[in-house]
Amino acid sequence: MYDGTTGTRFLKNRANDTGLGLTAVTLAATAGNQPSLTFTVKNAAGAPLPALSASDVRVYLGTIIPANTTLADGTTKYDSTYIETWGNASGQAAATSGKFDTFNYVPATGVCTVTFSDTFGTATAGGNYSAANYDPAKLQRAYIRVTPSTTNLGASVVNSLNGVAVVDFTVPAAGNPAVLEANPQNVIVTVEACKKCHGAPLLAAAHGGGYKDTLGCVMCHSPLYAGAGAEAPIINLTSFIHKIHAAKDIEEFNTRILGNGYKDVTYPRPLSDCNACHTASGRVLGTGDKINNYKVANLEACGSCHNSDTVDIATGKGHIGGAVTSAAACAICHPTTAIDTYHTPAVAAKDVREYNVTMTLDPPANGTNYVTGETPTVTVTLKNKSDNSAVAGTVYTAVKDAVTVAGGGLSKAQIYVYGPRSNAKPVLTKAAATITNGIPKQAQPLFVDATDANIKTTAAGFAYKLNPITADMTGTYMVRATIADYGYKSDSDYKIDSTAFQTIKINTTTDDQKISGNTCVDCHGPGFLEMHNARHSVVFNTDECISCHDKSGNHADPLDNRVHAIHSASAAGDKLAIDWKAVTYPQGLRSKDGAAIKVAGAPYCKGCHTGSTGSGVQWKTSISQNSCVGCHADKPGATDHFLQNGGR
User: Fold this and answer.
1) pLDDT value of position 104
2) Cβ(10)–Cβ(3) under 8 Å?
């Protein structure tokens, strides 16, 4: 967060997740046509709460208004489906709008029943609620939020997150139960997709983490929430979320993010990758889901990303198609198939690999892991990327060629052999044994060379016989091949290299814990780190990153330092003096220290380091000065503390 008065950044107190579960939701209409809901509330251990008060429970009710519906004011205004929230109740005061008429909680079972004072379709008084477009024939949504008090939780928990439940239903006749939809309807983005970057539980969300599902966000972030026509960005979730992720200025929040507003957001993957958010992410959705809604052009969604100082689609400013007033007009030039094409642009020729690379190693004698004394041979073979045909044998036996020359020989053919995961260094090659100023070389060339007897390259393929495995080697090691013909001349004149990769186990049958597991792809996606493509291609896999970002003392910053400095937005924590303070990490970094907080006061390492043994929990048991400096160097006195206690 940013304090505009003092000009300082600070870390917002994190909320605790109470782990409340809301299940067995039913809904009915009383004889007087009042909404009545019953649900079960249990804690993380599966036990009912000792008590629950009416003020701990809040229920929202709203009508799902399909896109292009003619509204009560006679207009067909919205290209997207929205919810008009007409009902809200919390606390108990019979016959008072916005309150429960009756409330009952059974501690023995955790069953809670609430009945609205208002009837179905009656707008709650005193708030931004409207029933102007209420239609009992349309699907309705109920959003239940339970925020128990400290006393009712039975533990000292502050700023607790809520238990939530969402059901879509058809309005029943008075005195009858409602028919509930089996799965949520009209879902555009699931909360599971949000959690990939923002964490689980969804702690980075607004309102103190109180609304843990996108199905709840849309109850209020709708242009219908404050009555038809209220289309400020703060209300309209379609434009609001797109603008945030596209780093667009939002007038209402122009002092957030280092005082510059949302325009300083650093989105962690290509913005055109709509599927990053618009994916079911394992959730079963109803027939009205809109996960693929991004493929349908409309003014609200498209304009929120593409409008700028020079472009305004609605007025025609900077838009070749002129002024556009409806999604129907958009579809003339931008059909669904075209939207997919726009957001999956063709890969630039320089970023298309030249070869399909296959790398194999002689199998371990015992079939599972290599042991002391073994000398496996690494073999690398190539096929042309264009048609997957095998390359000529002369490609392997030709001498190393100059860069920017296509054909006639490769400019790069090498392997990296390194490990173990937690303390990776070059091993088992002549390069690794070549020490300069105490630092071993990382890349082992594969070109035919009479001075290196371990190179076994022939017209059948590149090959390298590794040095004998030593007794002090135990753990998971990696082998990575990089191949290039055209190679690198400049950041704009290059051809991306072609790679192959695999892990091997040495003197153990158990894998080491992988740094961060596979969580990098949650935010960054499975593709390349584009800024790296020119010199060498890198996917978001820590096992591959440490081929260069190892602990050998070579030119690359150790990965534990670089990644911590980046994700903590550190100005001084990077050992190669790169300032990363502009990075906007999508999860809170720490909790406030204090006895009343039930979670540790340390940085929220789980955001990246998740999983069981073998899947990235190393942070729990090891301390690295590289990672500590990466996160903490900006704090006055921290670096001195590290040095005084033996750091380097």
Assistant:
1) 97
2) yes
